[in-house]
Amino acid sequence: MKKYLLVFLISMIPIVELRGAIPIAAAKGLPFGWTYALTVLGNMLPVPFILLLIPVLFAFMRRHHILVGLVDWLERKAQKGAEKMEKRAGKAAPTDASTEVAPTEGATAPETVTEEPTEETAAPKKGNKAAGTLAFFGLYLFVAIPLPGTGAWTGSLVAAIFGMKKWRALLAVFLGVLTAGVIMTLASYGVVSAFKIFTK
Question: Domain coordinates of the chain in residue numbers?
């Protein structure tokens, strides 16, 4: 029982997550089914709290000057994570095409004209939908492929800081954790089995 609890707790630790917990479980001889279930659960447990509380917590810490250096470091880490997500999704995250430009001095502001929506005016909505899909796919890949600097903790941090919809972020991270768990389980238990064969 202690071994199972240990593996569960290890999977909750930032950076280590299930990528570290599953090899430990395999080395201890725990069955892969229980290992997979426990590490996925442990890895996912902090995610809703990160998505819900991190923006509020960071704002509070900045307002009251509490560990501002740590907040800055985590935000820089999230920025690097966002860049990795963009690369994995296949292209850079789209920018807002409707960014306003301040008029030069002396220029008159254009009159506001109300128009019926056309295919051209509806295009930004399509673009926003495509951007959301890209962000979802990028977050999924970021969590799913078990490499250094990636995982559920960093992916959730990126999603929270950059304002991704919480339900989409939660689903993307969950699918990514499931995939990463499969990859690590196959790799870890395969290596352990091979080692046992060669040491007989």
Answer: 2-93+119-199
Q: What is the pLDDT along the chain (200 residues), one digit of tens a residue?
A: 899 999 999 999 998 999 999 999 999 999 999 999 999 999 999 999 999 999 899 899 889 889 889 888 888 888 887 877 777 766 544 444 443 434 434 444 445 444 555 544 444 555 566 667 888 999 999 999 988 888 999 999 999 988 899 999 999 999 999 999 999 999 999 876 555 544 55
The neighbour count for residue 200, using CB atoms within 10 Å, is: 5
Q: Can you spell out the DSSP letters for 86-151?
A: HHHHTSPPPP-TT---PPPTTPPPPPP------TTTTHHHHHHHHHHHHHHHHHHHHHHS--TT-S
Rounded Cα distance between 87 and 8, Å, is: 31
Answer yes or no: are the C-beta atoms of 142 and 77 closer than 8 Å: no
* 3-state secondary structure at position 159: helix
The span from the CA of 87 to the CA of 84, in Å, is: 5
Does pTM surpass 0.70? yes
